[in-house]
């Protein structure tokens, strides 16, 4: 048996500030017990006050730091005076204290004597080189030391920069990277031990250069953020909102430090305006309530965003800012948007080309310096700053030779990588399964560490393709249904692809089927525009057939002669949830937001969701509690879950709500979900027996409807629900009761409940109130309370 001397089963975090507490929370999310230590405050009787305060801060954090608040029990608070020896039980020790080199060196001197000899030691420093921290420590300590730079908030930002020193044992690097990627769910970028590492080095450079270009072009930060946000494939917070979120003081200190530590041509110099915001005005962003933007409330209590006038340093209401270049590319694919924006005219185009060319030039200059792989630089910007494309991928979109020509036209000296690309005539960094080294030499493309290769890039694996879905061979006898429509809304292509896959499994002798994809979300539900248009055209027979087909597709996840595993992540709403809950097994990303949300558009779940949740909660009742009024708690639980459109905030909460069962699997890293789902199919296949529909579901009949009506009456009279909420709720109650006319306890089949669902769905779809709700949702993205 191979020993695992560096297996991480317990951890310790030193420093209970914002980052330290959030790192401890992410470890707890992964099920790892954590000791959280901080200093003892003088004159405070609670010697663990700071650690306890850190846990409470994490519990109150928004967005939530914990996937399940109960996981906070895995964190044990302590202090560095009384509990230092507790570090001896930790397999991994990470510090997140003040960013001062002397403080970190003093800490490591205290940690080394008490840490176990196999423990991995890490610093979360965002910029202090790792090798400087461990000067004077023993050789054994230095071999076990590796930087681990999380991005805030650690739960949601995928990036973890792992920074080895020249002394780091390669086995430690491998073991820690594997743990962080698989157990903590992080995207690993191996960074060189240089100032700023990868993401901050390039990202902060981009922010300070954008500030310079913005003022030179005479733009406001609102306009600059429009140009450098989603239109360019970057985060909604764009440039200056990101600076506010990060903290202008953090940007100030990182940029100032990098300006001192880097050559003059890199130019991390801050503008006088930026310096004034931090030094004079103390406008530090969200932490002080004032930065480039400021939140306030109008006379009606509605939140309003004010913008800082960079000339007067006074805040003003600019309303909805529209930028012509951005308006011109709305609705177009990313590649088209990037090309159009790069070629835009006027001051908007001048600003964008300045920002983009700076980014291209600097990323190329940093290749081989901050990291040895181009894809690590791209991934650092994507995972740390929310970009859709990294700088090298964006240059590929524009054409590398076009970018080179533009840089030369500006009089720039090409970095060695771009000079080599010019000499070779190669127009893309990634092509034909190849990329290039920092020296510009072709090399086989290596997928990100430990991640399943992107299926959509390998056409040889596609068995059958439709416009909105594909059937893909995952290998080892497992097929994948991969949806690839906008938000993966469920329509004809998606349902027919499921049918295609089932037929292929049976005709070709595959082991089973996975339903999943590699988009931004698993599925946000049904194709509402299509449903609405059919309802308004009164195509009731067609709609009835469509709902039957939908029910057939969702229930086929359980009632097929082969195992079916569904792999949700991100949004799994409405129909996406219904596909999941009918699977033989679910393998869900930890960040799965699952719910039956149809009441928001005046409907109830029509793909078996209502039936399935009633069945599950009824089965949870003890024998003897499945008759008559004893069933009421199960009916109430299903009614509350569906009637309030409850959505889980994580897969852990989805399990508590009942969407996931005990035998379903939660995977911390979204990129591992398909791999684990494939493994689940292969585990189920050898002894798989096709299930049959249940005929024995106990229902309450009219007694359930009467109970629900009495509750709804009080809620309606109290103004808690709207008149149309009441109407939708009555249809939901009718299905959960098993139908009207039952004056005694009865048992019904799953098909009976499916028929009731379909009838209720069509009834509501024919009502004006539901059509108004759907129209409002499509226009505003928000539910209508009519």
From TrEMBL:
<dbReference type="InterPro" id="IPR006108">
    <property type="entry name" value="3HC_DH_C"/>
</dbReference>
<dbReference type="InterPro" id="IPR006176">
    <property type="entry name" value="3-OHacyl-CoA_DH_NAD-bd"/>
</dbReference>
<feature type="domain" description="3-hydroxyacyl-CoA dehydrogenase C-terminal">
    <location>
        <begin position="196"/>
        <end position="294"/>
    </location>
</feature>
<feature type="domain" description="3-hydroxyacyl-CoA dehydrogenase NAD binding">
    <location>
        <begin position="11"/>
        <end position="193"/>
    </location>
</feature>
<dbReference type="GO" id="GO:0070403">
    <property type="term" value="F:NAD+ binding"/>
</dbReference>
<feature type="signal peptide">
    <location>
        <begin position="1"/>
        <end position="30"/>
    </location>
</feature>
<dbReference type="InterPro" id="IPR029045">
    <property type="entry name" value="ClpP/crotonase-like_dom_sf"/>
</dbReference>
<dbReference type="GO" id="GO:0006631">
    <property type="term" value="P:fatty acid metabolic process"/>
</dbReference>
<feature type="domain" description="Enoyl-CoA hydratase/isomerase">
    <location>
        <begin position="484"/>
        <end position="610"/>
    </location>
</feature>
<dbReference type="GO" id="GO:0003857">
    <property type="term" value="F:(3S)-3-hydroxyacyl-CoA dehydrogenase (NAD+) activity"/>
</dbReference>
<dbReference type="Pfam" id="PF16113">
    <property type="entry name" value="ECH_2"/>
</dbReference>
<dbReference type="InterPro" id="IPR045004">
    <property type="entry name" value="ECH_dom"/>
</dbReference>
<keyword id="KW-0732">Signal</keyword>
<protein>
    <submittedName>
        <fullName>3-hydroxyacyl-CoA dehydrogenase, NAD-binding protein</fullName>
    </submittedName>
</protein>
<dbReference type="InterPro" id="IPR036291">
    <property type="entry name" value="NAD(P)-bd_dom_sf"/>
</dbReference>
<dbReference type="InterPro" id="IPR008927">
    <property type="entry name" value="6-PGluconate_DH-like_C_sf"/>
</dbReference>
<dbReference type="Pfam" id="PF00725">
    <property type="entry name" value="3HCDH"/>
</dbReference>
<keyword id="KW-0560">Oxidoreductase</keyword>
<dbReference type="Pfam" id="PF02737">
    <property type="entry name" value="3HCDH_N"/>
</dbReference>
<keyword id="KW-0520">NAD</keyword>
């Amino acid at each position: 048996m191979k020993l695992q001397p560096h297996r991480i089963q317990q951890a310790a975090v030193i420093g209970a500030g914002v980052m330290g507490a959030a790192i401890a929370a992410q470890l707890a999310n992964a099920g790892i017990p954590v000791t959280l230590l901080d200093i003892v405050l003088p004159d405070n009787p609670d010697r663990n006050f700071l650690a306890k305060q850190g846990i409470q801060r994490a519990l109150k954090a928004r967005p939530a730091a914990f996937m399940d608040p109960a996981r906070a029990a895995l964190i044990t608070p302590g202090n560095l005076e009384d509990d230092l020896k507790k570090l001896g039980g930790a397999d991994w020790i990470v510090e997140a204290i003040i960013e001062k080199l002397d403080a970190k060196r003093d800490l490591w001197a205290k940690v080394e004597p008490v840490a176990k000899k196999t423990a991995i030691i890490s610093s979360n420093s965002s910029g202090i080189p790792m090798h400087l921290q461990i000067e004077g420590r023993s050789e054994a300590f230095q071999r076990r030391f590796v930087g681990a730079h999380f991005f805030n908030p650690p739960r949601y930002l995928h990036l973890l920069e792992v920074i080895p020193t020249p002394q780091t044992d390669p086995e430690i690097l491998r073991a820690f990277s594997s743990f962080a990627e698989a157990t903590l769910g992080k995207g690993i970028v191996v960074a060189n031990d240089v100032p700023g590492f990868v993401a901050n080095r390039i990202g902060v450079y981009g922010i300070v250069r954008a500030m310079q270009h913005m003022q030179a072009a005479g733009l406001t930060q609102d306009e600059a953020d429009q140009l450098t946000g989603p239109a360019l494939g970057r985060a909604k917070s764009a440039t200056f909102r990101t600076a506010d979120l990060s903290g202008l003081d953090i940007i100030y200190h990182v940029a100032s430090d990098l300006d001192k530590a880097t050559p003059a041509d890199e130019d991390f110099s801050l503008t006088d305006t930026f310096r004034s915001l931090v030094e004079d005005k103390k406008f530090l962003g969200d932490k002080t309530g004032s930065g480039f933007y400021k939140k306030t409330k109008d006379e009606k209590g509605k939140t309003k965003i004010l913008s800082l006038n960079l000339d007067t340093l006074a805040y003003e209401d600019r309303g909805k800012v529209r930028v012509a270049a951005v308006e011109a590319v709305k609705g177009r694919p990313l590649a088209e948007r990037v090309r159009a924006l790069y070629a835009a005219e006027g001051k908007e185009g001048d600003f964008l080309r300045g920002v983009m060319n700076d980014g291209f030039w600097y990323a190329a200059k940093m290749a081989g310096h901050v990291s040895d792989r181009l894809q690590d630089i791209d991934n650092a910007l994507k995972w740390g700053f929310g970009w859709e494309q990294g700088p090298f991928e964006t240059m590929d979109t524009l054409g590398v030779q076009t970018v080179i020509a533009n840089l030369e036209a500006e009089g720039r000296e090409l970095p060695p990588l771009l000079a080599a690309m010019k000499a070779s005539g190669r127009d893309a960094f990634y092509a034909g399964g190849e990329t290039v080294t920092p020296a510009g030499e072709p090399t086989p493309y290596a997928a990100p560490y430990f991640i399943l290769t992107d299926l959509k890039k390998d056409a040889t694996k596609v068995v059958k393709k439709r416009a909105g879905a594909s059937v893909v061979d995952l290998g080892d006898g497992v097929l994948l249904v991969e949806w690839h429509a906008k938000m993966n809304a469920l329509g004809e292509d998606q349902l027919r692809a499921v049918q295609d896959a089932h037929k292929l499994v049976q005709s070709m002798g595959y082991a089973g089927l996975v339903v999943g994809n590699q988009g931004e979300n698993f599925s946000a539900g049904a194709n509402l525009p299509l449903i609405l248009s059919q309802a308004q055209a009164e195509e009731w027979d067609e709609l009835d057939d469509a709902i039957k087909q939908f029910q057939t597709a969702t229930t086929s996840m359980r009632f097929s002669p082969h195992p079916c595993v569904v792999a949700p992540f991100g949004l799994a709403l409405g129909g996406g949830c219904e596909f999941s809950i009918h699977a033989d097994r679910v393998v869900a990303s930890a960040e799965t937001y699952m719910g039956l949300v149809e009441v928001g558009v005046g409907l109830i779940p029509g793909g078996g969701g209502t039936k399935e949740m009633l069945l599950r909660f009824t089965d949870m009742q003890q024998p003897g509690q499945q008759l008559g009024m004893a069933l009421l708690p199960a009916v109430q639980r299903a009614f509350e879950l569906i009637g309030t459109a409850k959505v889980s905030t994580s897969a852990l909460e989805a399990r508590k709500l009942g969407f996931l069962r005990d035998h379903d699997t939660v995977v911390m890293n979204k990129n591992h979900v398909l791999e684990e789902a494939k493994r689940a199919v292969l585990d189920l296949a050898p002894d798989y027996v096709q299930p049959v529909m249940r005929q024995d579901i106990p229902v309450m009949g009219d007694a359930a409807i009467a109970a629900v009506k009495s509750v709804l009456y009080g809620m309606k009279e109290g103004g808690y629900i709207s008149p149309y909420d009441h109407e939708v709720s009555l249809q939901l109650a009718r299905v959960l009761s098993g139908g009207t006319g039952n004056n005694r306890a009865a048992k019904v089949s799953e098909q009976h409940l499916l028929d009731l669902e379909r009838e209720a769905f069509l009834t509501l779809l024919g009502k004006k109130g539901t059509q108004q709700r759907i129209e409002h949702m499509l226009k505003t993205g928000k539910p209508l309370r009519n």
